[in-house]
Design goal:
The chain is globular and about 70 Å long. Strands 1, 2, 3, 4, 7, 10, 11 and 12 form an 8-stranded mixed beta sheet that branches. Strands 13-14-15-16 form a 4-stranded mixed beta sheet, with helices on one face. Strands 5-6 form a two-stranded antiparallel ribbon. It is built from 8 helices and 16 strands. Helix content is 22%, strand content 32%. The mean pLDDT is 90. By secondary structure, the protein is α+β, with helices and mostly antiparallel strands. A hairpin with a 5-residue loop joins strand 15 and strand 16. It has 3 domains: 91 residues, Pseudouridine synthase; 132 residues, Pseudouridine synthase (2-Layer Sandwich); 56 residues, PUA domain (Archaeosine Trna-guanine Transglycosylase, Chain: A, domain 4, Roll), CATH 2.30.130.10.
Length: 306
């Protein structure tokens, strides 16, 4: 028996989905996939149910760049509730402890926030998708099991206080991949001496996607009523995920060998790092990496339909 052909349209591109509060990232992904009737789709890093905002959804060949978005810097805005510590570090958890916030001033908060910029060591929360002996930590947490977690190095590029209301802080965070805002909130609360948790979280940016419009599920349903062309019109090209990488233009001969998976030498190309690979007619072919000997090796190639 031959392989069963997957159902759906061969849709290509990246959707900047505005995930609502209350559903998982996977549920949001599956809804978008059904609306597009897409054969293949994947997201680029989960948002908690409590969180809303940017969830880039990669369709078709664009799934090949999802890992680069997963590893990209992120931009969040969060509300931190002071004086209340929870089991999960957010509003979904049970209250573990309450403490007074008397004496916490805006000046004190500003001084503490300065300590949480730059390179930090974070212990991942138990309620996370990190795996321990093959099991996600959150599944162990639901069983009442807590295991030792090794600290991880993360970077908070900028941490700005947007609002202070006595027992609540609104903050703007620009950070590296792997930064847990819940852990950041808890650590800030401990430094203030009152404990804290995240009561609201919204992701505004990921990698190159900082200012572009996001589309809610309701907006996508409205577009779906207009037809597939209306839905496809809001997709960004896969190349946009690596739009800030240097571009290498290949001759027809070099493009031929790259398509066969072979490294090639390209005059005046970058001497290290990742690059976008483009054909002589500027068609995006995929991404490559500069080898030690200066040749450029293809790493993710895109299949184009004739």
């Amino acid at each position: 028996m031959g392989r069963r052909r997957r159902k759906g349209r061969d849709v290509q591109g990246i959707l900047l989905l505005d995930k609502p509060v209350g559903i998982s990232s996977n549920d949001a992904l599956q809804t978008a996939k059904r609306l597009y009737n897409a054969r293949k789709a994947g997201h680029t890093g989960s948002l908690d149910k409590l969180a809303s905002g940017l969830l880039p959804v990669c369709l078709g060949e664009a799934t090949k760049v999802s890992g680069f978005l997963l590893n990209a810097d992120k931009h969040y805005q969060a509300t931190i509730k002071l004086g209340v510590k929870t089991t999960t570090g957010d509003a979904e958890g049970e209250v573990l402890e309450t403490r007074t916030v008397d004496g916490v001033t805006e000046k004190t908060v500003q001084r503490v926030l300065k300590r949480f910029t730059g390179t930090l060591e974070q212990v991942p929360p138990m309620h996370s998708a990190i795996k321990y002996q093959g099991k996600p930590l959150y599944k162990l947490a639901h069983q009442g099991i807590e295991v030792e977690r090794k600290p991880r190095t993360v970077t908070v590029h900028a941490l700005e206080l947007l609002g202070f209301r006595g027992d609540e802080l609104d903050v703007d965070v620009r950070c590296s991949k792997g930064t847990y805002i819940r852990t950041l909130a808890e650590d800030i609360g401990e430094s203030l001496g009152c404990g804290a948790h995240v009561s609201a979280l919204r992701r505004l940016g990921a990698g190159p996607y900082q200012d572009g419009p996001m589309y809610t599920l309701a907006e996508l349903r409205a577009l779906a009523e207009q037809g597939a062309d209306a839905l496809d019109a809001v997709l960004l090209p896969a190349e946009s995920a690596v739009g800030d990488w240097p571009s290498v233009r290949l001759t027809d001969d070099a493009a031929y060998y790259v398509r066969q998976g072979q490294p090639v030498m390209v005059p005046h190309a970058p001497t290290r790092g990742w690059v976008r690979l483009c054909a002589a007619d500027h068609e995006f072919l995929g991404v490559g990496q500069v080898l030690d000997d200066g040749r450029i090796a293809p790493r993710r190639l895109f299949v184009t339909t004739e």
